[in-house]
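Q: Hi! Curious about what Hsp20/alpha crystallin family protein looks like structurally. Here's the sequence.
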Amino acid sequence: MLMPSIFGENFMDDFFGVPERTYTKSAQNTLMKTDVVENKDGFDVSIDLPGFKKEDVKGEVKDGYLIITASTNQNKDEKNKDGKYIRKERYSGTCQRSFYVGDDITQNDIKAKFEDGVLKLEIPKKEAKPEVKEAKYISIA
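A: Let's find out. The predicted structure is below.
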């Protein structure tokens, strides 16, 4: 039986008083959300990368796939006036997405820009080259 959507994903956890893991859930739900828009010349791709810097993001084209990788290593230490830690938080992680762009697209064809935690890519369309069928004949002596 399907549950009504008012209960959300964690109905049983809420019911039994299990604390919600907001950081884990929000990170899973927000990292690398992607919008792809097709236009006459190609595709505009927007990838959300909150908390990442431009130097944390890498893109490559390999075997017809565009691979976007983002890595970070954050350390937020807070000390009181005596130098003792009040709170210490660390986060290290890598996330990656890949998109099939075709064998004819090279990394020089793709234009990329990173602003305000959003990676914007312009991927052109390339016409598929028609395969030329070569007739093969048996030589008759």
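A: A fun detail: The longest helix spans residues 22-30.
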